[in-house]
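Subject line: Sequence and fold of a protein, written as structure tokens
Body of memo: The sequence and its backbone structure tokens, given next.
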Amino acid sequence: VYQEAWRETALDHPNFVINVGDTIQGGDDTTMDAEWKAAEKLIAPYRKYEFFYVPGNHDVWSVASAQAYEKYTGRPLHYGFDYGDAHFTVLDNSRTEFLPAEELAFLKNDLQEHAQQKIKFVFFHRPSWIFRVLLHDPDFPLHKLARQYGIKYVICGHIHEMLRFELDGVTYLSIASSGGHLREPKTYDKGWFFQHTLVTVHGDSVQFAIKELAAPFGKGRVTEPEDWTSGGLKRQGDQ
């Protein structure tokens, strides 16, 4: 599935690729080097696309695995970068369900240094915001920073389910799988499918095409974030 996701991603000829974590299975310091080398081999045909990794809990679980992550990905555990009018911040909550204070401090400093960028995306693996946003509770540190510095999108993985949440003009996305297992009920309308997503930025305009993989892994359906809710695919008449 992951190979097919890369093949279809390459057909879009992206300027760069970013994931939402969990490149390897991980969990064992004695096998992680072999797993990273296998992942490198799989991705090798697509190395012309710059790849920005996000640390997931399957990538980083110990001090040694954090060092291996940085060695094999060539990325630090948290970092930021500009591309055109957009700024991207990658954070690390691979070893905790929450965003640690040091990650929030890094995010604040990074946003201050790139305040002039028109569009701001924040990526990290575990959607630690999900219950606060589901309850429409804006009183948590990440959301306060989002409002203060104009973060438009917060994008995570981990649960493998496609869901969208909106709070105070900030879009929170849980992205579906590109190879990790699908959980029950494993239905498209509930957000359980394999995909890759093309994001196009023009100035302060952002367009998403969430592309389900083609057969035999899917039906090639294409949606936008607005087609999804906190409960899955919108039903006719949903607002």
